[in-house]
């Protein structure tokens, strides 16, 4: 309940500041907020919101897994892209349903191994995890860009993109929604994370480490091993999200298409907002996806740039951090 009150306080404060900013631009705040809601959840905007929310929720959950133990994975983009390009490389070679399964597994394996390597850089070489995960993203993104410009480039196109996957390697589409069966894979990942977090010794170890690393060490928890395991799970899920995206429309890897929508960074915001709790992370991801999707309707209705929604997202996180610190200070004083 304390976390719920803190989040509600942060959302209210961000909304009030957003109203002030909108009024300063000459726009009506009520009209602006209404346009965001209608644009995100109206008949025309809901499919786009859900399509955007699936990869955001997947990345949010992926980044929440190590965050539960106080570990921040800033390499989600590299793991996402590497999983996507690996899925396409396998999907172009293996036909049918077996190709779908093999492509998904290739994405998971590529992301997991790459994230685990970043964890080993910290545990064995002393490179801080923030540095290793972030910097390793750049070689992964550059490698994918090279592959779709040269060896894997579609010869019939001038764009830096791979060939289109065969029709029998497409994820099944959900009728009239614009979504694919990847929705169920992401939801299954959220459920597995929730069960492991709440019902298993591994989840308890992660939470204890997040509460206090030194206490976890005294309790006998192997921090290096836990770091590698959590980062591998995080990277594997990020790679799965990349595979799910490319196995849906347009059924190919396009250079920059997975980075421009900022799935990773919005997912990280969602995980931070929810303090890495499974259900809270899912709801926060949906909230941020709706805010981003509704930004286009905001721009049309009020002529206010949709980048204001990004400002609101950042302000929301700042207010959340401030509210959390304020409540902790009051608790300590009491």
TrEMBL record:
GO cellular component term of the entry, any: plasma membrane
TM annotation in the entry: 50-69, 81-114, 126-148, 169-196, 228-251, 263-290, 310-327
Membrane topology: Multi-pass membrane protein
Cellular localization per UniProt: Cell membrane
Listed InterPro entries: ABC_transp_permease
Alphabetically ordered keywords of this record: Cell membrane, Membrane, Transmembrane, Transmembrane helix
Pfam families listed in its UniProt record: BPD_transp_2 (PF02653)
Superkingdom as given in the UniProt entry: Bacteria
Keyword Transcription regulation carried by entry: no
Main localization, broad class: membrane
A molecular function GO annotation: transmembrane transporter activity
PANTHER family, per database record: ABC TRANSPORTER, PERMEASE PROTEIN, GUANOSINE ABC TRANSPORTER PERMEASE PROTEIN NUPP
Protein name stated in the entry: ABC transporter permease
Organism: Actinophytocola xanthii
């Amino acid at each position: 309940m304390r976390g719920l009150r803190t989040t509600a306080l942060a959302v209210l404060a961000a909304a009030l500041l957003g109203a002030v900013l909108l009024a300063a631009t000459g726009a009506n705040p009520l009209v602006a907020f209404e346009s965001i809601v209608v644009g995100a959840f109206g008949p025309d905007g809901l499919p786009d919101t859900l399509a955007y929310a699936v990869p955001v929720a997947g990345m949010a959950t992926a980044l929440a897994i190590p965050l539960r133990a106080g570990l921040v994975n800033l390499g989600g983009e590299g793991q996402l892209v590497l999983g996507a390009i690996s899925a396409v490389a396998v999907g172009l070679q293996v036909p049918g349903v077996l190709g779908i399964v093999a492509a998904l597994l290739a994405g998971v394996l590529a992301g997991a191994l790459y994230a685990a390597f970043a964890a080993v850089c910290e545990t064995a070489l002393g490179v801080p995890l923030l540095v290793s995960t972030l910097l390793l993203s750049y070689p992964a993104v550059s490698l994918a860009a090279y592959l779709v410009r040269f060896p894997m480039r579609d010869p019939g196109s001038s764009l830096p993109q791979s060939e289109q996957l065969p029709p029998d390697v497409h994820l099944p589409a959900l009728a009239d929604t614009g979504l694919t069966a990847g929705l169920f894979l992401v939801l299954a990942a959220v459920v597995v994370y929730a069960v492991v977090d709440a019902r298993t010794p591994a989840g308890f170890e992660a939470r204890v480490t997040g509460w206090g690393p030194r206490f976890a060490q005294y309790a006998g928890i192997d921090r290096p091993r836990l770091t590698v395991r959590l980062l591998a799970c995080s990277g594997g899920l990020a790679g799965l999200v990349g595979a799910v995206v490319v196995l849906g429309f347009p059924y190919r890897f396009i250079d920059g298409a997975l980075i421009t929508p900022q799935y990773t960074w919005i997912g990280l915001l969602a995980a931070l907002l929810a303090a890495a709790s499974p259900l809270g992370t899912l709801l926060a991801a949906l909230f941020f996806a709706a805010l981003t999707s509704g930004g286009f309707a905001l721009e049309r209705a009020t002529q206010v740039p949709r980048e204001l929604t990004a400002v609101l997202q950042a302000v929301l996180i700042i207010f959340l951090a401030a509210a959390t610190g304020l409540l902790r200070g009051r608790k300590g004083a009491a």
